[in-house]
Amino acid sequence: MHNQSIMPAYEAEQHIVAATQHILKVLGASKCVSDDIRSALKELDSHLSSLSIINENNKGSCEFTEIEKRLNSAQRKVMHWNSIPSPIWDSGPVEAAEYLQAVNDILSVIQSLEGLSSSNDRKARDISFQAENFLQIAMLRLEEELCQILVRHKQCLKLQYVSFRSPAQNIMVYDESYVSVEVEDETVDETSHVEDGTVEETSPRDRSNRESIEYTADLVDPRIISDIKSIANVMSASNHVEEFCEAFIGVRREALYEYLSELEIGKFSIEDVLKLEWDRLDSEIKKWMWAMKTIIREYLASEKRLCDQILGDFTLDHTSYCFIEISKDSILCLLNFGQAVAMGPRKPEKLFRLFDMYEVLTKIHLATDALFSEDNSSFIRIEFHELLSRLGDSARETFFKFGDAISSNASVNPLAGGKIHPLIKYVMNFMSLFPLYCDTMNLLLKDQNVDESDVVAVEKDDEQDISSSIFCPMACHLRSITCALEANLVNKANLYKDESLRHIFLINNIHYMVEKVKDSELRLFFGDEWIRKHTAKCQQHATSYVRATWSSIVSILRDNTKASSSAVSTQRDDRKTWTKEKIEKCRRFTSAFEEVYKSQTQWLVLDLRLRDDLQILTLQGIAPAYRNFLGKDSDISNKYVKYSADDLEKMLLDFFAGSPGSLRNSRRR
User: Fold this and answer.
1) What is the Cα–Cα distance from 372 to 381, expressed in whole angstroms?
2) Does pTM top 0.85 for this prediction?
């Protein structure tokens, strides 16, 4: 204010002196002026020139005096707050505004000194040096104030925990040695395997596509944005925008670390991840998936908005630089974890997690590209898409290894009782979850060859349309796996010495496969024709079982007695011969039946309907022949027959129950 009042008066004096000197020059050039007067005019002009120099020097002195006053006033404000530890902004907006004005005054002093004449360079340098020192002190204080404001007014996103019940959660861990170990021990506890009907078709993915929509939230209190911007503007005007950015980055980066800690995201090296046991790794993967979606779609979207709000008035380079420096360490840490998982062993229990991770990245890749769209952040986009590709490769390779393991799986000893083999349970329950990942699998398996010679042909029924799902890549590969599974099943059946038990084993296991396909979404991908063909296979094995078990036994009952050629044979002699043969046949039949009863009551057909069907089929094959053999001769039946036809039919109900039946309890009294 003082400088502004002095300058107009000084300029008016200069104008008067200049005008007077001009008049003197005109008069001096006139021919009418005498020499004495001309000499006097020259002296007056010289005096005015001296006066101009004096005034110029007075002007400089006045300006330095005024500048020093302004600097001293600003310096007192800066040094006053430099001695007080409490935040300036806690004292209210008036104090904050006065402090910023003091900094602006220091800047004004520095700018004013740049325009003064060189005759006062030394004094200008002294004042400038003082101003620069005070400015540096003020900048350091503003950095502190910035950090305190950001920390004290930080607002975190609300944590939204979700249930990560995986579709693979009830699937046991697969081991290459799993089947051989289980089969060697005939007392294997089946409850340790996948139980029918316990698999929930849920996933960390949102199956109803209710994915969280990208949105931004306030990561700091909106009311202090203007305060932060005012600090940014002053520091930028002071050529300290880089220092502002570094302070801002430091606080916001730490806030992101804290948020990741709240999400329970640990820092793992690739070596650490590869050493984790499956249960721990599975838990870390679930947290990683939630963190990736939350960080990209919510947190970093909000962080970028905050950077734009604070630094939007500066260059795009500053905004981009701050955002990248805040986020890059955390993002690269998350991506490195994903890379480690993708590098790990190709075990089937990891397959669904790999699908989940792949799908998470697929769903957020557009948001990631948008967040890191500038050239200076291209390395993050590259790392992200490399991870997406590696996860896809790892999932595909794990799927193929799963199929190879089924083909190569071998057993040494047959499973007792012809029960459903653990491998069949594992594979079919595992496969029933693949439809949940149909789109992803079709993408990953596209252009991957399938050995069509091993795949059951899918025929079109003239009376109904077949879903296009039957012909998708996933469906073709799943049917190929079941072909390999059936071939392995036949090899395991051949371990049984008893032909009848081979058929029971195949009936049990093929029926289990059919029911799993019928009762799940696999039906859409296998088709009804596949179900019909495999149901027919069960029926064929049931017929073969009856033939292998009962044909030789029923043949005992056939009447092979030839008519006597002796004319002298009496009717009574014929009756005696017939009776002895019939009694012998009864004994032989009873002995053979009891042998079958003792063994086959220990065989297990778990499905009650299937068990009933086998019992009925057996009954139809043996009961009529036995009744016909016994006929109406009650004397023979009562005296020599151990089991009546009714007894036999009741005893057949004990078959395939998995525990030895009691002949004594079934015996006719």
Assistant:
1) 7
2) no
